[in-house]
Specification:
Strand content: 35-45%
Number of strands: 44
Largest sheet: 5 strands, mixed
Number of helices: 7
């Protein structure tokens, strides 16, 4: 019996030891994976973007001027990883209506977007992203919502639905018998914050306390749920509506994570139910932007454990705390904002009052927390705040976008409220309420640790060089073969090169500006159908047909009631200067033509012969179809000619030219390009120009204009899948550089009317340690309050923002 007892004890001890070892190994695996993930992100850093716009919203005829700040999420320093920045302008329906590409230099760039005067009023989005961001998913892309006031529209939008009231226990869950903080948020049917108040009761009607929203529908209260009880709140909203809202059910067992912030420390309190005391070692981690900055392995020997962590382990920004139980499951998570109050100070000496068209002078100085001058890059905008009224709390800033909204999901109202008054304890408390209730979007450790780490690819960018390769259908490279590049429109932009032994080719110094159209073609007609061309870098080109739903709320832009009478008269004069007033205009509608878009210089559809996609449905050869169905065409030595010129077989000097072929806006030479290689199913339309209609093309041989169904977007290799040896491609090049127009007034032009509401924009102000940077500009004829917004960054990643006002009378 004694032997049996000893054997049993030994067996249980072995089992306990194995469980302990297994648990320890599992925890070490979690920590190991966290460290691997940290090294991955440190090597391939996540990037964040801020766009400083020259004004808060725009008229449909305006130009959007911007300065881009691209920083590494780790330490917030200007990024030297990405060399290009892609920006999409997205309309209220989610359609991309403009794309641009800018070169980044040490994480900085500036540019512009011209707005069409036909745009409708609404909420538009600027979406910006680097190629590096594509490794981490669409959630990491930057989006800025802004207003455009365009064509007047009467919108009677009836809001449907009920107001909402949600509870958010700190750390994630309520646990019976454990006291914790509970955040709450009230929202109206339009999704915006609404004030509310209510009473907390249990299922028996026992009152536990009252609650009331504090700021933007948010607040918090402390609560200890009892076992086997349910709780609800009777809520009254500011709009008079009432609702009964249930609190989350308390778990019978679990952990609670409470955080409080002091000047130098983060104070953590971990509470647990009695049944999990001494049930194994926990893991507590703290991370910023996915990079782990703190790891500990606390053991719950009592129901409460207090931990103090120095704040100097973290940089200014959001810190994510996650508690894992002994089974390595995340059981509590909490965001908190660490503020070292290390923002740069931007100072200027602009005076308070100016006359119309008066010269304004200012000196700009960038200072650190030691009050010493700093070298940095600063962007500065000046606009009429009477014409463009917006509270500074409502306007996104370099602080809110790099330190807050880039890490949170959902709409954040008044994002700059939390940064406008540094050191304000009340605003710090409101920011904490936001972090409890808003949640986070980028990742959760539960997801990251349960799947493979992200695969970070080295992506080739198409800049001023086009690289690719040519392969045969048998998988062998097209070695030492000739390949021709036709660049948009001009004959002299035909380039040729040879592939190397592995089938790779390169065209350098292409000077890609805006959208550049090309056709690549192999020269061997015999082998052409057995060859396929691939271009490197197309996978990182912006995708023109991608949808994006604006992140802000829909709204109707109202007429500005604060506009002074003098400024309204100036507006009226401006509109008159743009056109002629007509007493009566009779408009006769004309049925749109069969072709909406093509590269025809005479206009889409203005041709002698038009062939549509439906006409080619039963043919297998485009060239044969044209010869059989279009009068006046003939073939000679594989090329198509017009019969309106002398017979190519006649002995004449000079010989007649074959017809010019324009494929999606790119002129291609029939010497190297066979129309019969095009798949008829990919053709949207063909336009034939002969006689006087070909005059714009400076040719006497006629013109064939071919427009594919996918127009100018060939990033998906549409034609080349079937038309082997031919590859039409559109590449988005860098935006042409422009500077903001700022007039100079003297006695000769002082009487000219100045209609500028945005009077100054300078995205490239460089500050020094020696003296202030001097700037000057002239005000316009608009009167009222003007707003000066200055934002900037230094090489160490410290950021700053200052706002000044002056008046023009």
């Amino acid at each position: 019996m004694e032997s049996y007892f000893k054997t049993t004890v030994k067996f249980l001890l072995i089992i306990a030891l194995l469980v302990t070892v297994s648990t320890t190994n599992a925890q070490e695996n979690v920590i190991s994976k966290l460290l691997v993930y940290k090294k991955l992100l440190e090597k391939n850093q996540v990037e964040k973007i801020h766009l400083h716009l020259n004004q808060p919203f725009y008229m449909a005829y305006d130009t959007v001027w911007f300065k881009a700040y691209v920083v590494n999420a780790n330490l917030n320093r200007p990024s030297n990883i990405s060399k290009n920045l892609n920006i999409d302008l997205v309309d209220p329906s989610g359609n991309i209506i403009r794309q641009i590409k800018n070169k980044l230099s040490f994480g900085l760039s500036d540019g512009y977007i011209n707005l069409s005067d036909s745009l409708k009023s609404g909420n538009y989005v600027l979406r910006a992203y680097t190629d590096q961001m594509k490794n981490f998913g669409q959630a990491y892309e930057y989006q800025k919502s802004f207003q455009i006031k365009g064509k007047s529209e009467k919108v009677n939008k009836q809001l449907t639905g009920n107001s909402s009231f949600q509870f958010f226990p700190e750390g994630g869950d309520l646990v019976s018998g454990l006291k914790t903080k509970v955040g709450f948020k009230a929202t109206a049917p339009n999704g915006l914050a609404i004030d509310a108040k209510g009473q907390i009761s249990d299922e028996k009607g026992k009152l536990f306390g009252t609650i009331k929203t504090d700021h933007l529908g948010m607040g918090n209260f402390e609560f200890t749920p009892e076992a086997m009880r349910s709780y609800h709140a009777n809520i009254t909203f500011a709009n008079g509506k009432t609702s009964k809202m249930e609190l989350p059910l308390a778990k019978p067992t679990g952990y609670i994570l409470n955080l409080n912030l002091t000047k130098d420390s983060l104070l953590l309190k971990i509470s647990c139910s009695a049944d999990v005391v001494n049930k194994g070692t926990l893991i507590l981690i703290a991370a910023q932007d996915g990079i782990t900055r703190y790891i500990s392995k606390p053991e719950m020997k009592n129901q409460i454990m207090n931990i103090s962590i120095p704040t100097d382990k973290f940089y200014s920004g959001i810190v994510q705390f996650t508690l894992f139980d002994s089974d390595n499951l995340p059981v509590a998570e909490r965001l908190i904002f660490v503020d070292h109050e290390d923002a740069l100070k931007i100072e200027t000496d602009v005076k308070n009052l100016f006359a119309k068209k008066e010269l304004a002078k200012m000196n700009v100085i960038l200072k650190n927390q030691d009050d010493k001058n700093e070298i940095g890059s600063v962007s500065l905008s000046v606009y009429n705040a009477t014409e463009y009224p917006i509270e500074d709390d409502d306007e996104p800033s370099i602080f809110s976008e790099l330190l807050l909204t880039s890490d949170l999901k959902g709409l954040i109202e008044k994002p700059n409220y939390y940064f406008n008054k540094p050191g304000d304890e009340n605003r710090k408390q409101q920011l904490d309420n936001l972090l409890i209730t808003q949640g986070w979007r980028k990742f959760s450790w539960k997801n990251e640790l349960s799947k493979k780490l992200p695969l970070v690819n080295e992506l080739y960018n198409i800049e001023n060089e086009l690289k690719g390769n040519v392969m045969q259908t048998n998988g062998k490279p097209y070695a030492n073969g000739m390949i021709t590049l036709f660049q948009s429109g001009l004959r002299q932009t035909i380039l040729q090169t040879k592939t190397d032994t592995a089938g790779y080719f390169s065209f350098k110094d292409l000077n890609l500006i805006d959208t550049s159209n090309f056709v690549l073609s192999t020269n061997t007609q015999k082998e052409k159908k057995n060859l396929k061309i691939t271009v490197l870098g197309l996978e990182v080109q912006p995708v023109s047909n991608r949808k994006s739903i604006p992140s802000g709320q829909d709204f109707l832009i109202e007429e500005l009631i604060a506009t002074p009478t003098e400024n309204k008269q100036l507006d009226a004069l401006f509109y008159k200067s743009k056109g002629i007033n007509l007493d009566e205009v009779n408009v006769v509608a004309k049925k749109p033509g069969p072709i909406k878009e093509s590269a025809n210089l005479n206009g889409p559809g203005k041709a002698d012969v038009i062939v549509l996609a439906k006409d080619l449905e039963t043919t297998h050869d485009v060239g044969t179809y044209l010869l059989n169905n279009v009068n006046g065409l003939r073939a000679f030595q594989g090329r198509i000619y017009s019969r309106e010129i002398p017979d190519p077989g006649q002995k004449i000097s000079p010989p007649p030219p074959p017809m010019m072929v324009i494929l999606d806006g790119v002129e291609v030479d029939q010497e190297n390009f066979n129309i019969s290689d095009i798949n008829p199913n990919d053709v949207g339309s063909i336009e034939i120009l002969k006689g006087t209609s070909e005059g714009l093309y400076n040719t006497s041989g006629g013109v064939i204009i071919i427009t594919s169904k996918r127009g100018r977007d060939h990033s998906n290799d549409a034609l080349s899948k079937i038309a082997k040896g031919i590859f039409p491609i559109s590449v988005l090049g860098y935006q042409k550089y422009r500077t903001f127009y700022s007039p100079v007034y003297n006695a000769a032009n002082l009487s000219n009317k100045d209609f500028r509401k945005a009077v100054y924009w300078n995205p490239n102000v460089i500050t020094s340690t020696e003296k202030a940077t001097e700037l000057s500009f002239f005000n316009s004829d608009y009167t009222g309050k003007y707003k000066v917004v200055i934002e900037g960054i230094n090489a160490d990643g410290q950021i700053g923002r200052s706002v000044y006002y002056y008046e023009v009378k």
